[in-house]
Design goal:
The complex is a heterodimer of chains A (209) and B (190). Chain A is mostly helical. Chain A contains 11 helices and no strands. Chain B is elongated. The chains are: A mainly alpha (209), B alpha+beta (190). Chains A and B meet through loops of A and helix 3 and strand 7 of B. Chain B binds a DNA duplex (17 and 17 nucleotides) through strand 1, strand 4, strand 5, strand 6 and strand 9. Chain B: Keywords: DNA-binding, Repeat, Transcription, Transcription regulation.
Amino acid sequence: RLRKWQSRLRVSDAAERNLAFALSELDRIASQLKLPRHVEEEAARLYREAVRKGLIRGRSIESVIAACVYAACRLLKVPRTLDEIADISRVDKKEIGRSFRFIARNLNLTPKKLFVKPTDYVNKFADELGLSERIRRRAIAILEEAYDRGLTSGKSPAGLVAAALYIAGLLEDEKRTQREVAEVARVTEVTVRNRYKELVEKLNLKIPV
Amino acid sequence: MVDMSNVKLRIENIVASVDLFTQLNLEKVIEICPNSKYNPEEFPGIICRFDEPKVALLIFSSGKLVVTGAKSVEDIERAVNKLIQMLKRIGAKFQRAPQIDIQNMVFSGDIGMEFNLDAIALSLPNCEYEPEQFPGVIYRVKEPRAVILLFSSGKIVCSGAKSEHDAWEAVRKLLRELEKYGLIEEEDEW
DNA sequence: AGTTTACTTTCTAAAGC
DNA sequence: GCTTTAAAAAGTAAACT
């Protein structure tokens, strides 16, 4: 009987140690990504639920925490790419992606709840680039027309937004270079250029020279 | 009824497991395999490539093989027979015919229509779509078991099927689901 | 900037770690 | 779970010219 008690204590000890480790890892990621408190709290809530449902089995705590952070960002429409999270996590992007899909399926995080519109990325990138409200509206108008014309399926939302901001900057005389928009969107200049070319061509945009 | 008349499927790759029912001395086998590689530290089998038929074979000491890259079941049979002839020259004995099991077939194809993948992701149950990671929708068919990658162009990749019939059946089920959720007719405006 | 090569996703078996 | 093999889709990436 004493043995049983000890084993139970050991189990709860381990569980507490794991939770403490998970939450400290979450804290580290959240502070480095400068995430709002409500996002960190949502990630913690998702993690506790994942533990309660036994979803950690076979996965590292770090990959599940990173996945919860990514899921919380998507749920609360706080744009953060998987790359940004992978950069500061010890686990690679592939593993975080797997954990993300797994918890999304098991915590009923539907594509609808997780959907982040390309326009949701506009403000984040525009903030970092110091772009005006007029540019943001113009970029959103471009993105909406691109969506209506079927030019966005399968493309990287970040790349599309970067190109839309680049074009809006040219049209509204508040230019940012391809390099600058590519950097905040975390895509390459080649991607910005490719999206730019397609949007200008298919939406018949007249770029002032 | 789902209209499949515009749907095309092409075999791209067939994977088969084979049992030759004979133990093999891999050290001897490498010597008669021209373009082969054998590093037991990193992988327990010999990796061997044939030009005709164009396939890759993984040869294990148990006498079991994995043949990949074939475009037809006949290519696999020819490759296996070719290897058996080579093995006979180094003294391998074959008491019975090899057992060949098709394990996986990969098809590329076209549904003949464009798709709004965002709309599909929002209403087609049990599908995955993460455009930041991969440009296609991933749809898993339970029976027959197969996975279909659907792109906005309407092009598809079907893998995991064990026969061409199963692949067609899987595509038919995907189209039935797309139709059920009203994701089929759209073309010009969404 | 354009080209080439290469990686992302899906599948599957093999023997062994 | 990993290791190795093949193949396509379309997007993105990186290394060269």
